[in-house]
Amino acid sequence: MVEIPADMQAIRRNDPELARSWRYHTRDVFERLFADGYLIMIFVSYHDRDDHSRSYYLLAHRDG
Questions:
Q1: pTM
Q2: Are 9 and 55 contacting, i.e. CB atoms less than 8 angstroms apart?
Q3: Are the beta carbons of 2 and 59 closer than 8 angstroms?
């Protein structure tokens, strides 16, 4: 699983530099995972026990 900020739109509005950093970071993570044979299976967004929004991409290896 790869977690990303749940409200990226708010980050873009309030802190464009942070949003850009997140974009570059996740791009690097996904490029490495894709090169290693992983595929995105599903995007999950939910509220945790403390009612914080959480967002993840669930990946699986294409051979698995």
A1: 0.81
A2: no
A3: yes
- Order of all β-strands in the sheet with 2-4: 2-4, 53-61, 38-47
Type of residue numbered 52: H
CB 19 within 8 A of CB 8: yes
pLDDT, residue 64, reads 67
Report the distance separating Cα 26 and Cα 49, nearest Å: 25
**Tokens at residue 14, please?**
């309030």
Is 16:30 a contact under the CB 8 Å cutoff? no
The pLDDT of residue 3 is 94
* CB-side neighbour CA atoms (13 Å) of 52: 5
Cα–Cα distance measured from residue 23 to residue 1, given in angstroms and rounded to the nearest whole number: 17
Average pLDDT over residues 1-10: 94
